[in-house]
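Usage

Read records sequentially. Each one opens with the input sequence:
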Amino acid sequence: MQNDYIHEWLPYREDFLHILLDLEAPPLPRICKICQKDGVYRCPDCMHQPLLCTNCCRTTHASHPFHRIQQWTGNFFEDSALHMTGLQLHLGHGGAPCPSASANEAPPLSGQSRPTTAGKDGDQTKGDRQDTPTMDDDEWEDVDNIPLHLRPPVGSKHLTIVDVTGVHFVLVRPCQCLNAESYPLQLFRAKLCPSTFDKPSTAFTFSVLDDFLRDNVECGTSGMNYYSKLRRVTSNVFPHLVVDRYRELLWVARQWRLLKLLKWSGFQDNMNPSKDGDLVIFCAACPQPGINVGPTANLDESWKYTRAVVMDGNFKAEHMHERRPDDQVWLMDGRGFMVRNPPYQAYLKATPHITEKSSCNNHKAISQASASHGKLNSTGVGAMACAQHGCFYPHSVVDFQKGERQLNMDYSLTHALSYNMTGIENVLCFYDINCAYMKNLRRRIESSDLLHLPPSLRITAGIGMWHVHGHKKECYTRYSLLFIKGAGWVDGEIIETLWSTLNIVSASTRGMTSPHRQELLDFQMNNSNFMKMIRMADSLSRKLKTARASVVLACDAFERFNKAITPEQQRNWGRQEETALLRRVHDPSVMDVFEIQLKKVPTVHAVELRLLEKLPRQGVHHGAASWIMHGLAIEEAEIILNIYRKDNGPNPSELKRLTIARRAEKLSADRSRFIVDGRIYLRVDDEFEWSDESDGRTDLMLGQDTLDDEDAVSNDGYSDSSLVEVFGRASSNDPTSPYLPLPSKFGSAYCKAKKLHRLAQMELELHMGQANDALHGLRLALADKAVIFRGVVRPATNYSMRTRTWQMIHSIDTSVKQCAAIYRQCRLAMIALGADSDILDRYQELQKSHLSATAAAFTQGAHDHRDSHLPWFWTMDIPKDTDSKSWLSEFYRIHWLRAKAAKDCWEEENELVTSEFVWVVNFFQYRAKRWNEIYMAKKLAGNRGAACYAARQQAVYDRLAEQAELIWQGMNPDDNPFHHGM
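and closes with the structure output:
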């Protein structure tokens, strides 16, 4: 697209350049467009940049005093200024001169006036303000070198006016009638905002203030960068000579933000606010009783009226310590998104910080709770937002002092849950560390006199889909949004996207005063909420389309699982789900029903930990368990390496050969260290020389053909050999040698004779744990393979999809080979260590046929499975009194529950978004009705301006409501759920 456009433009390139150069010259003849006299000025800001004489230029621009003009020098046009033509700006009387003005008033100043130093800017606390810009002495030795249009005119009547077109010097004539307003009010009525009020000498146009605020929220433009741009607009060649009004811009912008918010919020009383957060807007789609939810709604019984909130901290919004913290002027403290400062500071002083250790992983939010704050007054902010739509909660944003502490987030949460919540009793709260945060929330709130939550409020804790996978395994089912009733299909991470918009201005606020920072952050968050509000209908339409398509897919997936089980299993598993969802608020551990409930056999790590925690057995050195575990890990790595070598064939690529060589080298180093340590644990004499009696025999078979030949694993490495033989063979340079000096390599009889039987018992226990891990991995791999075959490979409709799925199958086959080879080696070691019949009955021989369970075996009804249908390792962990229950049945229970949870989530999402459409229309209608009431009141009071603005705002919300209804009707032609006049 772009290339096509450039190709079309290329033929015009020379013509465009020619015209661009032609515009540098005056028209011929060079005469004024209006009076036909000598033309000396032209205005590039006017259409067709007309050529004008001095008088015509002045009169033509009486209504455009902030255009930038150029003057003809005889050879070229140079920058000039309208004040050099004698232009005056009259206040009052519609721009005409005041009839009461003194007849003796000085005439307009000539454009040839020499510059003088201006007086103070009116703010005595800020020091003198010089109109003459600061210059580099090496570059400008005399003020006369400043271009004429940049020199402030002589006299006290001129005003420095900052507009989007740059910085201007304008001769201002105020109205001098007896009933005239004060000078600052006259300026403001002329859409000029003065920077000071005692003899103001600088003013900002409404246009430049709106443009600055717009640049600030959209582009993150700081005040310094914005004023730097205005200097370039004023003079691209000499921007450093333009007068500096950067500080004044910041002062006036603070006033302008407050005035805008007061206007937008319905002319709120700035001295007596009705409630906290009254100057900002909240989410149009979240249920708000009395606003977008009618009085007849059943708030307590319907899950749809649940408030979903997400909380998080942002460490980019830092704030430095202030020089004069007591000399502050708060313009809107507590009336935006940030909490009111005095009560918050009182709460911090009255509430001790209690560090609570988490039983889960060490998360960043916890580890930073006591982080050093250095020179920072605030290390960041904590905020609340609605989880579905990402709108900030009014009066809930708090500053951090020493990281993201629970006492900060408690204050934020309690204030967010008091905003327009009348009658709502259910809350879904999502937080990265909810597994730790929610444990003692009620106790912390009840112990504080400054916090309050209604006792009837039911809070269900959740963790965002991205963060939950960084927690312990148990946290997934207890806090994942997939298993939360009423959550719909939401990820719980939307607040992370909001930080990017807030961080646009965070760098600018770092060194501001606390009130200024609060106002800027509030304005940025309000802009974020406003943009979401006006686009809410479009956003909901996209969500509804996705939900409707996903409901069909989720229902189909659930029905496939549902057909594979009996009605009794459906009832039993359904009751398990219902009970867990009802009790989860008080005990999240009940959600473990969504995990496999079979008895867990000890893993190899659990066995190692148990051995390490025991007192050392008599005749066994400290660290023997870890030494044996190191040997088992080496054997596993050798098996995996041999399978990898075999899978890559006889002629692998150079990169794969390099990978094999590196892994073999590492194994060789590990073997050497293990052998050296073995002399200690096996009590080998120092004079022992193992190389003399070694026959150098190596065995390359281990792990190579595990699945191709059942006889590939021999027991050569597990014979009753002497220390000399084993150490000799272990010292071979071949990393694939099965000979490691483990007790199993000597045999049980030799170990008893040499009093190594306790060491042999430790190895046997570790091999049993290793076998458990291998069989568990084998079951998971075979089950995954069957599910992929049935759900992905067979339905695949094109070559690309089949290729990708077969790659998945090959990867699973590799896992099957590895697990099977590891298990077979474990069993040979158990036999060599003298395992009794009970152990060997449990850990049976693994045949090649055991690894070829077909997809059909996994898709038939789980109630039809019998132990004879599946290999022995599928039921080895099942208690004897539950023969009717197989491992595969448990596998189906989990998948049935999770498939049902996904189906329920999408059905909830479909129903919830449908209701949100109604709430959005109700919200817009409520706002329109409110503005209508203001319009009627102001009209009755004779306040024409306020009445006109209220009428305009009412029309805006009427149009938003109409747009939302049209979007809904486009998706649902036969359904109209909207009831006007809620």
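Summary fields computed downstream for this record:
- The first helix runs from residue 2 to 9.
- The two ends are 48 Å apart (CA to CA).
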